[in-house]
Design goal:
This protein is mostly helical. The chain has a domain of 176 residues. Helices cover 68% and strands 0% of the residues. The two termini are 41 Å apart. About 1% of the residues have low confidence.
Length: 428
């Protein structure tokens, strides 16, 4: 009889934990709570999915699904609790959601939940294989467990958001780009940008890296989807999107869940019900947000420019930009931080290869703890109630943002100090 090694035993144990404990946790949540927002109990299960579903149903009925008043009327007609969660994305997502409107809202929410679970699992497989984390097979099941317990992943699945689709498309873009399949990579990036605008900010990086075919394909994909959207949806909703929705996205959004730099500064500089800010001065908020965002962009550009003439490190470069995206966008709920799975995976790869300083490993670990803070608040409800004045501090609310900044610093520092020899990814 063959002897089972301790590593193999640990591997088997982690797989059992994943199958017996983690997956059932998600299954219960998906079956019972994927739309518990509809119960009116103050929870947010399916709160964003509801907006996508209603927009698609309005599209099918020929209504202007960007009109806030019409969206509110649709919410009321379905007996759902009123809230400020409205459809704000490009038309493509609403078009893709039309088939789901053939199902009742509850069943559609459950299907969307489990579809996103599958997309998340596929994203993890692509990332782990591309970063060659599988060579550490003894620890890979543990990494999957930690990834599924990552609070932003829990939040985005629970709310029914589209971030898992974006994560998968970015992972596919990276995977294809390394193989010089620039046309397909550009198509993937173009689709991601038309689902949620933020990935379009990757285009300047690819242009700097002289991935001209990728950039042209991405631009052509965006243009083609825009034209098709105009044909399918019509000019009316597009006019509302351009005249109302896009300008509203540039306004202050003070909310503890908004963990972008602009979101944090809005807590300090714009009157809100969450904290006692320093003042109420929207123009000052705009200037401060522009200044700190420009500083972040300058830091990323300087770090990339420092690598000029050296061996390419596409994994660290891509990771740095993905980590910086939530900082400079005006609205970045904690749920968007699920994209950080990629930078964490990249840094972990450098830990295994022993090509990263302990200081940067410590910063990345601390960043994960800070990002987990909202989940710790949920778990220790009584403690939160008891120390509510302490937790109402904007600096305590901004701990996930601090975690994001620490991750950016750790990634940038690792890229800055990366050895001169060619990266395994660049050799492909």
């Amino acid at each position: 009889m063959r002897r089972i090694t301790p590593r193999k035993l640990l591997n088997i144990s982690m797989i059992v934990v994943f199958v017996v404990l983690v997956l059932p946790l998600y299954a219960i949540r998906g079956l019972n709570d994927s739309l518990d927002h509809a119960r009116g109990t103050g929870t947010v299960g399916g709160i964003d999915f509801k907006a996508y579903y209603i927009a698609a149903d309005m599209l099918r009925s020929g209504k202007d699904f960007y009109d806030v008043q019409q969206q509110a009327e649709e919410v009321q007609a379905r007996g759902l609790p009123p809230n400020e969660s409205f459809y704000i994305y490009p038309p493509l997502l609403a078009v893709l959601f039309v088939p789901l409107t053939t199902l009742p809202l509850q069943q559609a929410a459950q299907l969307w939940f489990f579809l996103n679970m599958a997309l998340y699992g596929l994203s993890l497989v692509i990332i782990s294989r591309e970063l060659n984390l599988g060579r550490h097979s003894g620890i890979l099941p543990l990494l999957y467990i930690l990834a599924f317990l990552f609070p932003p992943a829990l939040f985005t699945l629970y709310k029914g958001q589209v971030n898992m689709v974006i994560l998968l498309l970015l992972a596919v873009t990276f995977w294809l780009c390394l193989r010089e399949r620039q046309v397909l990579a550009g198509m993937s990036l173009g689709v991601a940008s038309m689902v949620k605008v933020i990935p379009i900010l990757l285009l300047p990086y690819f242009l700097w890296r002289r991935k001209y075919t990728l950039c042209l394909t991405a631009a052509a994909t965006i243009a083609a989807i825009a034209i098709l959207g105009l044909i399918i949806v019509g000019w009316g909703p597009h006019r509302t999107y351009l005249s109302s929705v896009l300008p509203s996205l540039a306004q202050p959004r003070p909310n503890p869940g908004n963990q972008s730099l602009g979101g944090f500064l809005s807590l300090l500089l714009v009157e809100n019900p969450y904290v006692e800010g320093l003042t109420h001065d929207p123009p000052l908020w705009r200037m401060a947000t522009l200044a700190v965002s420009a500083a972040v962009v300058a830091g990323v550009v300087l770090t990339l420019w420092h690598r000029r003439g050296r061996a390419a490190r596409p994994d660290l470069e891509f990771a740095l930009i993905v980590a910086a995206l939530p900082l400079i966008t005006n609205i970045a709920w904690v749920d968007l931080f699920v994209l950080l799975i990629f930078p964490y995976g990249v840094l972990l790869n450098y830990v295994f290869r022993r090509q990263i300083r302990r200081l940067w490993v410590s910063l990345a670990t601390l960043s994960a703890i800070c990002i987990t803070f909202p989940r710790l608040q949920d778990l220790f409800t009584n403690l939160v109630t008891r120390y509510e004045p302490f937790l109402r501090s904007p600096f305590i609310m901004g701990l996930p943002l601090c975690g994001l900044i620490l991750l950016c610093v750790a990634t940038a520092a690792t890229l800055w100090e990366a050895p001169h020899q060619e990266s395994p990814h660049a050799a492909r």
